[in-house]
Design a protein that fits this description.
2 domains; 12 helices; five-stranded mixed beta sheet; 335 residues; alpha/beta; Glutaredoxin
């Protein structure tokens, strides 16, 4: 099934529900043999765990080539420009080299020179760029906003002010403090999500296919929580996300016609749903402990758990894709 986000039906739906939440980059979830390996120095207890997994799933953060991502290390100016270019899809031309006194034909030359050509970055008064210098919080604000949102910030304080006003960070740094890789990644992903909320972005995106895949485990396959996914209930996935992000548990029985109707409505809505929430399909007949925990006494029940792990709401059935949109809209308020 393919729906155009610019079609009259979808636009009417968005207008009717006044939906302004995230419509992220929709991805086709990879099959198991394409699953990526976890970074050896990244723990599920890390504050930036899901951020890094999503950026990795998007092909933006690939690690250091030795199965590490060194999240606590500082990031230098060349590395940041390369990563942001990747996120922005910046085109590099054959002539993108020799643009600064210390940027000639190194691995980062095309990245930095492309960004300079497009006006995203500038060097220092002495004609250098200082690519190996640790990037500061203010510099990261300027580079991220100018590249991804096409701003024209020249002043670091001005760029940092916008970053703060838009809540584009998890941790605040002083303007001239070197920023760690994990926090730079967090800022990058928040700006990407902000960009993906724009009407311009929605109008040019086409949502492809139904996202349900019963064989995918979000943990082992590194599918980030900010991607819209609908998966079979697995204890490991459930325990990982419990208390960290909203989840919607769908207590489903294959013999239940109402369940099948709800799933049909959900599948119809999935291509246009925003991310940030995990939908889990729970077997009503076998998961007795989970039913008891959430007070579920009949099949075709949906339970919304917020980012603190508390139950927010329960309801029966999704009668249409519109009701799935409304349920998702409610869930996103409890991130």
């Amino acid at each position: 099934m393919t729906l155009s986000l610019s079609s009259p039906l979808m636009k009417d739906l968005f207008s009717a529900l006044a939906i302004t939440f995230l419509i992220p980059r929709l991805v086709q979830i990879a099959s198991a043999h394409h699953a990526t390996k976890a970074f050896t120095d990244l723990s599920s207890q890390d504050d930036y765990y899901v951020t890094i997994l999503e950026l990795h799933a998007r092909g933006i953060v690939n690690g250091n080539g030795d199965n590490t991502v060194t999240p606590q290390n500082p990031l230098n100016r060349a590395e940041l420009v390369a990563i942001v270019n990747r996120a922005a899809g910046t085109e590099k031309l054959p002539g993108d080299k020799n643009c600064f006194s210390d940027v000639r034909e190194e691995w980062f030359s095309a990245e930095i020179c492309a960004a300079a050509r497009l006006g995203y970055v500038k060097g220092y008064a002495d004609g250098s760029f200082r690519p190996e210098r640790e990037v500061t919080s203010g510099e990261s604000s300027k580079i991220l906003l100018n590249t991804l949102l096409k701003r024209n910030h020249q002043d670091l304080a001005e760029a940092s002010k916008e970053l703060e006003q838009q809540n584009f960070y998890l941790k605040k740094y002083d303007l001239n403090t070197s920023i760690k890789r994990n926090e730079a990644f967090e800022r990058l992903l928040r700006i990407i999500h902000h960009k993906e909320q724009s009407p311009e972005f929605m109008d040019q995106r086409t949502a492809e296919g139904v996202l349900f895949n019963p064989d995918i485990d979000p943990i082992n396959n590194q599918i980030g929580v900010n991607l819209p996914i609908y998966v079979e209930f697995k204890e490991t996935s459930y325990e990982h996300f419990l208390g960290k992000s909203p989840m919607i548990l769908f207590f489903y029985a294959p013999w239940c016609p109402l369940c099948r109707a709800s799933e049909e409505a959900l599948n119809e809505a999935l291509p246009s749903l925003g991310g940030g929430v995990i939908w889990m399909k729970v077997d009503y007949d076998t998961e007795a402990e989970l039913k008891k925990k959430y007070g579920v006494t009949y099949q075709d029940t949906f339970v919304l758990i917020d980012a603190t792990g508390e139950v927010v709401s329960k309801k029966s059935s999704l009668r249409s894709s519109e009701s799935a949109q409304e349920w998702m809209h409610l869930a996103l308020q409890y991130q």
